[in-house]
UniProtKB/TrEMBL annotation, chains A, B:
<keyword id="KW-0805">Transcription regulation</keyword>
<keyword id="KW-0663">Pyridoxal phosphate</keyword>
<dbReference type="GO" id="GO:0008483">
    <property type="term" value="F:transaminase activity"/>
</dbReference>
<dbReference type="InterPro" id="IPR015422">
    <property type="entry name" value="PyrdxlP-dep_Trfase_small"/>
</dbReference>
<protein>
    <submittedName>
        <fullName>GntR family transcriptional regulator</fullName>
    </submittedName>
</protein>
<comment type="similarity">
    <text>In the C-terminal section; belongs to the class-I pyridoxal-phosphate-dependent aminotransferase family.</text>
</comment>
<comment type="subunit">
    <text>Homodimer.</text>
</comment>
<keyword id="KW-0032">Aminotransferase</keyword>
<dbReference type="InterPro" id="IPR036388">
    <property type="entry name" value="WH-like_DNA-bd_sf"/>
</dbReference>
<dbReference type="InterPro" id="IPR000524">
    <property type="entry name" value="Tscrpt_reg_HTH_GntR"/>
</dbReference>
<keyword id="KW-0804">Transcription</keyword>
<keyword id="KW-0238">DNA-binding</keyword>
<dbReference type="InterPro" id="IPR015424">
    <property type="entry name" value="PyrdxlP-dep_Trfase"/>
</dbReference>
<dbReference type="InterPro" id="IPR004839">
    <property type="entry name" value="Aminotransferase_I/II_large"/>
</dbReference>
<keyword id="KW-0808">Transferase</keyword>
<dbReference type="Pfam" id="PF00392">
    <property type="entry name" value="GntR"/>
</dbReference>
<comment type="similarity">
    <text>Belongs to the class-I pyridoxal-phosphate-dependent aminotransferase family.</text>
</comment>
Length: 481, 481
């Protein structure tokens, strides 16, 4: 399809002709012309509107800069498909998930801990103590790298968890999402190649997309990403970093094996790339002993480590930490400054107080017990209630996520819509991938629900699943005794 | 100068030759080769290392993508000057400014209000009331658009200040810097053209640079930016937005005239661009009546309005607001999500409480009186103490900044270094511009100092100024009476 334009330019105007032409074309393209329509050849259009071919070239160049048109070598210019940096459908869905009222739904989508578990009184005490002590200082601009005593207390926390880092390597940020965003700023130029696990965390994809990264995916396996697949890519392309969640990955729940961790570190050294380890869940192991972070084994300073407590503490505080290699420090500091100057003063100070009082460790221990119970309940309910064709893909004894595979003919997005209508929400799998291969997967989380809701939720899921398949569920009767 | 390489590739390796070559060249360029050195022609290098010319082309392309080399049409490839997205010297300087201890210096650099003026007790009361009321809810993830009651109370605040907006147009962010950063994300692709006032706010330049914008500058005049100069650019280039501070601009203190505001709005309509109005100081007018924001006159929804209270309230809270045109709302919400999910819950709620109690207006009235006094004192001290060749360029009766022009032969950066050594800091003018035309300008602020320090600071400035010129100051003796 080719398009013919019917307009003329104003040669009396003091606006240059090519800008006039550019605006007219832009307007047409945005409003009237479908994607992949061919634009008139340069000479033809020049003749038609009575200008020099160079004028058309300039106008087309501006349109290409706007990503409104693209050129195919030897065949001319075409209207580009409407693109947004972030896939709108996905974005809006996830935002909706975040905003769901717990009271109205059974929420198996949210991975945010339920607010009843927050240590509000303890933290209120911390805030008041800090305000008494620091007064207005707590409300001043803070250092961009973060409140020094907090950096010291989190350094100690890391050490107790097997991670040694120098104080200057620790940066305070406003949550793990900000960590990902700031790291993208310093590491990614447009078109830079990176690798992510497939599927992976939705918000990370958004941040990488916003820097127009060239995102390569490698598939997840029961013991971590497929490293053979990774190496195939590494042999062909220089990548900037590999983004990974090593423990109880979002959304699969996968826990990397120690062997694969060692292999990954070796690959990073051999093929010269960074690893960004996003650790939000390593504290939630349900076997006896804690799991290993990649950072613990990182002797060559290849791992940029993000630590957030938002899944076990209070996400509304918006606090997280980055440990990063020395040579990235100045750039990171500048990027933090350009992002929001510094993180909030009061929350940094109160969290520091809370850490020093040893309250965080106690709180996490408690959370681990509660979550373990819910994990066991949910896996049991899935096994006893749901038909055998629905499978938990990986069982990792930790974290907040269960990744379920449904039969290939089930569209999880349609299932989701049916579920919403009866007050149940979960996360359809397609949200977590750039590839179109998870349409029959879903992620269930038990973070925001209590035991009753888990039982009810799985029953409701069964109901809509059978309805979707057009099957009826047997009515259950109990004998009157 | 041309460089000759002495290395060979491993043809037995399973890494592709062009990646091997790319890495070797990258390593050489980063460590050994000065900027603007010419690289060997493609054929020569191909012969030398025994590969296909296509292999060299691929390697050179990767280096160009990394911005390590640049091509001159017809003359080959050259080593690029070391570039950082953000000019490192500037960045580090500004960060130092933000971190200076008031107790050790007379700080005429910082525009942060001194912490003695913060209403700590009132805000502590607000925090405790909110925690009593909202409990764990205050520490949950918040909606990405912001806490609804806060959006309502700030809408009312805007209305009282002449700005009408719908509720859905209001977005809560973590400070004005984050507002600039997020707006850059949704509006700027690499190479997009924008216009800024010259000089302008340092942190804005950082954010725009981080998106690799093509930044055009127009000079400031006593009544606002030079709109004739702006229009010259508009006739030639399509710009995405004009970034401006309409009232008591940073660093010049300039207050736009109503006439120029109207002209600017007309230009935006005619040449189809947005205006980002960064309003951090309109509350600090020292004449009888308040000044006009551009947003008040914005009938066509051209103005994206950023409002922060960090200069009159408590900057460590990290809160600000954006009013933006309807059609940008979905993208903004997604960008906020990808940036840090949401702003902190407790601070949003406490600030809302504080607003509703009418405490902010009272606090700002008080601040205005205090700042007016300091403004008058500082301008008087400059006039009485400093030699006539040092001029306050614009006098606008408002804000926190005085922009001083020194004689052309004075290098303000050298003067700054001399000043630091005797415990005085201010902002050298070059920080606020991409052009090299403000080397003999400085910005003084009286935000963080008391009246005594203003007097002492100007005297110290006089001292180092005369020392810099190699002049002696008359020793002053007072008669013993």
């Amino acid at each position: 399809m080719i398009v013919i334009f019917e307009f003329s330019l104003n040669k009396e105007s003091d606006k240059t002709l090519y800008l006039q032409l550019y605006k007219k074309l832009k307007n047409e393209i945005k409003n009237n012309i479908p994607a992949d329509t061919k634009l008139p050849p340069i000479r033809k259009l020049a003749e038609k509107v009575g200008v020099n071919p160079a004028t058309v070239v300039k106008a087309y160049n501006l349109l290409a800069e706007d990503n409104l048109i693209y050129k195919k070598v030897g065949s001319g210019s075409f209207v580009a498909p409407t693109q947004k940096v972030i896939r709108p459908e996905t974005g809006e869905n996830m935002l909706e998930h975040g905003q769901i009222k717990l009271s109205e739904n059974i929420n198996l989508a949210s991975a945010a801990p339920s607010k009843e578990l927050f240590p509000v009184e303890d933290f209120k005490y911390a805030i008041n103590q800090v305000l008494e002590r620091d007064q207005g200082e707590a409300f001043s601009y803070q250092k961009s790298q973060g409140f020094l005593p907090l950096r010291k207390s989190i350094q100690k926390y890391f050490m107790n968890n097997g991670i040694n880092s120098s104080l200057k390597q620790i940066q305070v940020v406003s949550g793990a999402q900000q960590a990902i965003d700031i790291l993208s700023k310093i590491l990614l130029d447009f078109g830079e190649k990176i690798v992510v696990e497939d599927p992976t965390y939705f918000g990370a994809l958004q941040a990488f997309n916003s820097r127009k990264a060239d995102i390569i995916t490698v598939k997840m396996q029961a013991d971590g990403a497929d490293l053979a697949e990774l190496e195939t890519h590494l042999k062909e392309k220089q990548i900037k970093f590999f983004f990974t969640m090593q423990n109880f990955q979002n959304p699969t729940g996968v826990n990397w094996s120690f062997e694969k961790q060692q292999q990954l570190l070796k690959l990073a050294e051999e093929y010269d790339f960074y690893i960004i380890e996003d650790d939000i869940l390593s504290d939630l192991y349900y076997n006896e002993s804690r799991v290993k972070t990649l950072k613990e084994s990182d002797e060559k300073d290849r791992v940029i480590y993000i630590k957030s407590f938002s899944k076990v503490f209070m996400p509304g505080l918006r606090l997280a930490f980055i440990i990063l290699p020395d040579k990235l420090l100045p750039e990171l500091l500048e990027a933090k400054y350009a992002t929001d100057i510094s993180s909030g003063g009061l929350t940094q100070r109160a969290f520091d107080f809370y850490l020093r009082e040893g309250l965080l460790d106690k709180h996490i221990d408690l959370q681990r017990k509660l979550f373990r119970k819910k994990y066991n309940l949910m896996t049991a309910e899935i096994k006893s209630e749901l038909p055998a064709e629905i499978k938990v893909v990986y069982e990792s004894k930790g974290g907040l996520y269960l990744w379920l595979k449904l039969p290939a003919n089930v569209d999880a997005k349609e299932l989701y819509q049916a579920a919403v209508s009866i007050g149940l929400v979960f996360s359809p799998g397609y949200l977590f991938s750039l590839n179109n291969i998870f349409s029959n997967y879903i992620r269930l989380s038990f973070a925001a629900v209590n035991e009753d809701e888990i039982r009810k939720g799985i029953k409701l899921f069964k109901k809509i699943y059978y309805e979707y398949l057009g099957k009826e569920i047997d009515q259950e009767y109990s004998p009157l005794l």
